[in-house]
Amino acid sequence: MQNVILIVHLLLALALIGVVLLQRSEGGGLGMGSGGGGGAMSARSAGTALGKLTWGLAAAFIATSLTLTIFAAQNSATGSVLDRLGVPGAATDDDGTGVPGLDTDGLLPPPSAGDTGDGPLIPQAE
After folding, report:
1. Are 39 and 31 in contact (CB under 8 A)?
2. Residue 16 lies in a domain
3. Residue span of the structural domain in which 61 resides
4. Interatomic CA distance for residues 38 and 32, integer angstroms
5. Which of 23, 35, 66, 91 holds its CA 20 to 30 A away from the CA of 58?
6. With the C-alpha atoms ordered 44, 45, 47, 48, is the resulting torsion angle positive or negative?
């Protein structure tokens, strides 16, 4: 059932993209080209067939989105994604940084020979 709704959802998305691209442009973005100086707050134009089809497809798209969300919520486990991967979720201070759960072991390359770690980060010009 979920796969059927997902396929319908994808087809609605493609149809919605196509219908929006078929509509006549008014010459400007964000309602700038409607004329009369009204901008986005001007009176609505007469509903065309493409406009009504756009609203219908948008409503169906939202309905399938909500349906898929409800299915996903019902099928989800109460645990975390990390629990399913088997990653230990205990927040411990493993490396003494003072940040629980931060393990920096292996993130940095080993120090070079004779490096004490207290030198400048940027080499000095000689």
Report:
1. yes
2. yes
3. 1-22+50-74
4. 8
5. 35
6. negative
Instruction: Indicate the average pLDDT of the chain.
Output: 74
Domain count, the chain: 1
Please give the C-alpha separations between residue 50 and each of 11, 57, 81, 117, in angstroms, as whole numbers: 17, 10, 43, 68
- The model's pTM is 0.51
In a domain, 11, yes or no: yes
Query: Considering the chain, what percentage of its residues have pLDDT values greater than 90?
Result: 33
Distance from C-alpha of 94 to C-alpha of 27, rounded to nearest angstrom:
60
- Asked which of 17-26, 72-81, 116-125 is least confident by mean pLDDT, the reply is 116-125
What pLDDT digit, counting tens, does each position of 61-88 carry? 999 999 999 998 888 766 666 766 765 5
CA 64, CA 56: separation in Å to the nearest integer? 12
Q: Which amino acid is at 3?
A: N
Could you give the residue ranges of the DSSP H alpha helices within the chain?
Answer: 2-22, 49-75, 81-85
Q: Is residue 118 part of a domain?
A: no
Considering the domain boundaries, does residue 4 fall inside one? yes
